[in-house]
Amino acid sequence: MREADCRHGARASAGPTSRRPRRLTRARVLAWALVGTLLGACGSSDGEPVSVQHPLRVFAAASLGDLLEELAATGDSAPFEVHLAGSEVLLRQVRAGAPADLLLMARPIGPDELPPEVEPTELARTALVVAGPTAGSTVSSSADAWPTRPGDLPGHRLALADPDLAPAGAYAEQALTASGVLEDCRETSLVAAHVRDACRWVALGEADLVICYRTDVAALESLRECFAFEEVDVRYGAAVLSDPVRRQAAREWLDALRARRTLLGAHGLEVVSP
């Protein structure tokens, strides 16, 4: 698969070439920050607000960016800052000592991946889908030729996230392997640093289709869903990493996010009870 390093808000540096595709070998992710400038405060168990001197620092999978941006705009949360990147990149940063209060990954978090005092939980689930461009895009593929099953994918320029950097890529490889079409799709596939970068290849006309989450289709007007890989269960993991002073506020922020079922649903997510 050919390497593709897209960046948020930027056009792809190059289109497809005739050289043999290859996988990314290093993380080349541009993580961007989003600040929730909110005035609300989390409530404590006894109904009193839990105060923190600085906004909560939320390290979140790139596919959650639009959800958290909308949450910030509602004003219904404690102040928070969001650092977005591929999930595996975030995990490495946290394990290296990055100052995160919460970690939200696009896969379950294993009990041995974080310090023993941290108790990972699940936030929500979504679907892994194949998506194509909406009507009126510059992509030349005919909607009539869009796939309705995995066997239709070979021959299309297929964008996906790097399996070594983002769970969306690992899920995609799992789905293509289970469907028996991984090798047939490999030569015409483009690999991006994370799933939102892969989605941008379709918007730019550099790819015909993308394997992404339903959350991405809900967030991006440039995409429409073709079909879902029903056998793939995509779950978002969460963990509170704060020091004792901020831990309660972080837990309450996470509980408040879970309580926003309508907001989560609008972004293609179904709540998973803790």
What does this structure look like?
With 274 residues, this protein is α/β, with parallel strands linked by helices. It has 2 domains: 32-125 and 236-271, D-Maltodextrin-Binding Protein, domain 2 (3-Layer(aba) Sandwich), CATH 3.40.190.10; 126-228, Periplasmic binding protein-like II (D-Maltodextrin-Binding Protein, domain 2), CATH 3.40.190. The protein has helices at residues 65-74, 87-95, 167-178, 182-186, 195-203, 214-219, 244-259, 261-266; strands at 2-4, 32-36, 42-43, 49-50, 56-61, 80-85, 102-105, 121-126, 128-133, 158-161, 189-192, 209-213, 223-228, 234-240, 270-271. The strands form 3 sheets. A 7-stranded mixed beta sheet has the order 2-6-5-7-14-8-15. The protein has a 6-stranded mixed beta sheet with strand order 1-11-10-12-9-13, with helices on both faces. A two-stranded antiparallel sheet has the order 3-4. The longest helix has 16 residues, at 244-259. Mean pLDDT is 80; it is low at 2-51 and 138-143.
Q: Might you state the CATH topology name of the largest domain? A: D-Maltodextrin-Binding Protein, domain 2
- The CATH class of the largest domain is identified as Alpha Beta
The helix count comes to 8
The CATH homologous superfamily name of the largest domain equals Periplasmic binding protein-like II
Please identify the structural class as seen in this structure.
alpha/beta
Spans of at least 5 consecutive residues whose pLDDT stays below 50 are 2-51, 138-143
Cα shape: globular
What portion of residues is helical? Answer: 25-40%
By CATH, the architecture of the largest domain is named 3-Layer(aba) Sandwich
Number of strands: 15
Give the strand order, joined by hyphens, for the main sheet. 2-6-5-7-14-8-15
The main pleated sheet reads as: 7 strands, mixed
Give the topology string: H per helix, E per strand: EEEEEHEHEEEEHHEHEHEEHHE
Radius of gyration from the CA trace?
A: 19 Å
